[in-house]
Here is the input.
Amino acid sequence: MPALLSEIINYRFEIFAFLLFGIGFMNLLLQKNLIKKIIAFNVMDSSVFLFLASQGFIDGRAAPIVVDGVTDVHRYINPIPSGLVLTGIVVSVSVSAFFLALVQRLYKRYKTVEFDEIMVLAKKEAEK
Amino acid sequence: MKREWLSRFVSWVETGSAAQPSANARPEKRSGAPAGGGAVKDARKKDRYRLFFNTYYTVAVIVCLTLVSVLIYTVFHLPFFGAENSPAANEVVKRYVEKGLDETGAVNIVAGMILDYRAFDTFGESSVLFLAVTSVMILLLRDENNIDPQEDLASAHEMVIEMDNQDLILQKVIKLVVPCILLFGIYVVLNGHLSPGGGFSGGAIMGAGLIVYSASYGSVSINRFFNMKTFRALTTSALLCYALSKAYSFFTGANGLPTGIPLGTPGAILSSGLILVLDICVGLVVACTMYGFYALFARGEL
Amino acid sequence: MLPWHYNIPFFCIFLCMTAGILMPLLRKGRASFYLTLCVCFTVTSLSAALCAILYTSGDSFTYQMGHFPAPWGNELFAGPLEALLATVFSLVMGLSLLGARRAAAEDILEPKQSFYHVMLCLLLAAMLALSYTNDIFTGYVFIEISTIAACAIVMARDTAHTTVATIRYLVISLLGSGLFLIGIVLMYGITGHLLMPQIQEEMLQIFANGEYTEPMTLVVGLLTVGVAIKSALFPFHAWLPQAHGSATTTSSAVLSGLVLKAYIILLVKVFYRCFTIEIIRSLRVTNVMFVFGVAGMLAGSLYAIREEHIKRMLAYSSVAQIGYIFMGIGLGTDIGIVAAIFQILAHALTKPLLFLSAGRLSEICGHEKEMYHLRGAAWRDKLAGVCFTLGGLSMIGIPLLAGFNVKYLLAQASLQNTVKMWIALLALAASSVLNALYYVPAILALWTPVSQAEQTPPPKNTGYRVAAPVLSALVLFLGFNSKPIVRIIELGLSLLKI
Here is the structure.
């Protein structure tokens, strides 16, 4: 039991990231409110970034910005995940903006952000 | 079921003309009870929907729980968290950290990595931003399909209020703050290769400055110096500059030609070759994009 | 200096992206249309030249993106297979644009046409990058580009249906890319590389040592599921019919014919270059893909039979055709994957032909899409009728058409494994019958003589008159003479192995 506990404590960031991922994933699938869906998407993406960042962390080292001209690999953490997180964040911002624009457009037309109501209204409109 | 679609195909192929029932009328005819059948059918349909959604929910929850448990199970088999000898700490990292300063001239190793070593990814990511703002424009720019008279009335009303009740305190404070915000944004962009920050963060700060200005002074006064034309010119020229300089560096790199761009002394503002130029381009694009998002969402125009 | 043709992949991708960046400057929809068309056909001719050169010399190359070599910088990888795919992708996109120009001009408002063409240019760039990339994270970035662009071209036709369809499409796509991204991160965590050949080295070691086997299995699973969701494999297909059925015809053709396939190409590259096909086979992932592929083949056709809306029927038929591809990959052998890639090409040519013809036929009948109202439409534009018939027959698998060769190759490939052979042969037979059950009635309905047919002369459509015969000719070519194409695919696949 203590062994498992210490394992859990050691991997706490990864475990927490995956729990968050599950929360985001489930809400993205099941929420009917579109704004909540967008929030869920952001939770999901942030959890992936947390996981990514935790892959690059190394105990007791500094952020990868050269200080005093010291370029020793044992001084800094892994810079690659940080760079990938940057890229990922920009992608996620763009997708959120696009998603929000879609929702705003639908809200203007149907005055609601509940997706099931929108589907019913859209079906009615198409039948006319 | 089988009979239904068979009869439908027959109705497609039949040569008879106007007497044929239309596609929408046929289901009633099939159910046999034209008048009273509608309500029953609706109820049945609703039941079916509910059943569908219930199963959908259960399945989705089960799938999610399995996924999460599998993921967490695998976590325990990953390299130890924070360990020095994990597979990720290999020769790639070594070169980025130890030679990065000499090869890219960037003190900020991450900036050197995303804008020089792995620049193609970053170029793709800037295109994602451009793509997002373009698709938001498709959706939200005012046109024949996207016009709501009520809303136009409301926004005209707001405009009148805006013009009549200029909030003196707000505007004076903003007049003081906005230059500082923009200046700080420019500082962050220009120091992207030396310190934390860079094009994306600096651009977001500058965009925030523009948004604050536009929110307090109204669309008319910001349109005097920042309108659709400026937006288009800035984004296009910045992205084009980005694309061309990257294309130049990829082409020379792959063909083994020298770039002829000096790297400068590490630590100075004018150093690290193309990274500074790219940071400025990205900063401009991001600032325009952020402000563009705001303006499109708030007013449907730039 | 490298030989000149080494620069073609890089040049094509950058040409598309630069054209996309410059597009908003063009105010007129016409100008942006012609620019996009030029870009498409330039890329086609360059890629065809590259394909010919690489096929005759029988080699492949990596192109270093920047001043830093393999494990440090990004890279492109090009062989005859990638060049062939790039040729087909750009050609089909150009022809879809040309063939459905009238419909697109009516469906999309004039001031937004240039934005629509931005999306198409970047979509083409993303598909090229997905097939050429040698770096897994570049793959992710371009997957996201193609997600946004694909959603945007669905929603460009501004109706209630398309916006709702776009939201569903976007949500499902985001789930898929989320899973794909986690897969990539896990892969990075256990190998420490992002370039495919280096990943493979590490993966082979992991497979031999057995140290990180669980994460490795999960990686394969996540990447496969992510791609399966984004390319609408059977249980994840719910978003597809509405999105592809309600979009404007160009978008439907491009989405159904090309975008779904680009992800699968990336998956095949990952299988061959990040892992090896032996590892994938021994993890039994291929068996799962095989089962879902077979299920998709049957289920897609069953859905299509019940559909009366012609474009949605074609969209469901795409679900079935994606099933074929996954079944081919699921066989887990080289010739199975050759058959799958041949199916990708055949479907990339046939489905746009069908969509363009359906769009043209419904244009004649006053934009009605229900099968019932399209009766007799073929008599009013015989070219469209003949092309639809040709495409439909190819989908059923009539000999001398592209679809037949697909089924022949798949059947031949399945002979290596006894259990899979029986399932595959039965599924192929059943799915051919099911395909016939909806394509034949549709074709008959189109050719039904209807007395009211000669009311108004159909509007002229020059673009379609150029595009449809070219596509039909290509479908016939793949049917008559599949040997050279199969040989290119075989050569390309063998070069993918490191």
